[in-house]
Amino acid sequence: MSTLNFDHVKVGDTLPPLTLAPIDRTTLALFAGASGDHNAVHIDLDFARRSGMPDVIAHGMLSMAYLGRLLNCWVDQRQLRQFGVRFVGITHLGHQITCSGRVVEKFEADGERRVKVEIQTANQYGEPRVLGDAVVAL
Fold first, then answer.
1. CA quadruple 100, 70, 36, 58: dihedral sign
2. To 5 degrees, how large is the angle CA 59–CA 119–CA 103?
């Protein structure tokens, strides 16, 4: 994480991408334990198949956590003012997720200089899985 200066950040600047290891069962089990989300579609192959999935799928909140990690690699978490996402696709086992972001606005609010960034996760095929935005004080 580097110290960013509002005057040097420009609309269109990109955040350093974060590419993660492919999603595997261990990751899902560990996230289920850490988050308390033991929904069977994320950890039980038989249940996932009965639900029409070829296998278990990743937690949506795991992808949001990855985007939080992207932001916290860019700025200190104390600078985060807003963070929201919407889930637009399923992350399957074996998907290799890359998180990315781009500055889309600079403004002042509540006596702070802030930037708005659009963020997303995409799989190895370039298909967006989670879209969101965040506001960061610089």
1. positive
2. 165
With CA atoms as reference, report the closest residue to 23 among 48, 43, 50, 49.
Answer: 43
136 neighbors 75 (Cβ within 8 angstroms) = yes
Instruction: Tell me the pTM.
Output: 0.94
Strands 80-87 and 98-109, sheet pairing: unpaired
Task: Give CA–CA dist 101/112, Å, rounded.
Answer: 21
Helix (H, G, I), strand (E, B) or coil at 120: strand
Answer for the pair 37, 23: CB distance below 8 angstroms, yes or no: no
Give the helix ranges, DSSP H, for the chain: 25-35, 40-43, 45-50, 60-74
Look at residue 74 and give its three-state secondary structure: helix
CA distance 83 to 107: 16
The candidate with the shortest Cα–Cα distance to 127, out of 103, 92, 102, is 92
Residues 121, 132: Cα–Cα separation, whole Å: 9
5-42 pLDDT, tens digit each = 999 999 999 999 999 999 999 999 999 999 999 999 99
SS3 for 40? helix
